[in-house]
Amino acid sequence: MSRHRHQPEFKATQVFDWASEPADERPTDFGRSTGHSMLSGYGTLAETPASRRRQQERSNGFAKLLVSCAVFLAAGVGGLMVVVRYLQA
Q1: Which end of the chain is more exposed for a tag (fewer CB within 10 A), N or C?
Q2: Where are the alpha helices (DSSP H) in the chain?
Q3: Domain limits of the chain?
Q4: Which of 16, 48, 52 is closest to 35 using CA atoms?
Q5: What pTM was computed for the model?
Q6: Which of 2-6, 29-33, 56-60 has the highest mean pLDDT?
Q7: How buried is 37 (Cβ within 10 angstroms: 0-12 exposed, 13-18 middle, 19+ buried)?
Q8: Taken in order 75, 77, 79, 85, is the CA torsion positive or negative?
Q9: Could you give the CA distance from residue 26 to residue 37 in angstroms, rounded to a whole number?
């Protein structure tokens, strides 16, 4: 027995079905036309400016962490060298 998908009949209040609906009336175009395409699940998966900014802040934060660790390490080594000089004298 083969099963055929049954298409429901048009209602009197229904103007278009999905197959005959004009393309500019579909949800993807609605999202683009209103400017909410970044919030829409129908939009493209392109990187948003906000995510790019967060990624840049993350990389800037990592650079700051590395610089502060290097400064802390240099201060520690310098302090140890001073202590060694006092102990040798």
Answers
A1: N
A2: 27-34, 49-88
A3: 10-44, 47-89
A4: 48
A5: 0.37
A6: 56-60
A7: middle
A8: negative
A9: 13
Query: What would the pLDDT profile of 10-41 be if each residue is shown by its tens digit?
Result: 666 666 666 666 665 555 545 455 555 555 55
Q: What are phi and psi of 16, to 5 degrees?
A: -130, 150
Average pLDDT of the residues in 39-63: 66
Interior/surface letters 19-32, b for 16+ CB within 10 angstroms, e for the rest: eeeeeeeeeeeebe
Distance CA 4, CA 28 (A): 29
Q: What is the pLDDT of residues 37-50, one digit of tens each?
A: 555 555 555 556 66
Amino acid at site 34: T
Q: What is the number of alpha carbons within 13 Å of residue 34 lying toward its C-beta?
A: 14
Closest-CA residue to 28 (of 44, 4, 7, 13): 44
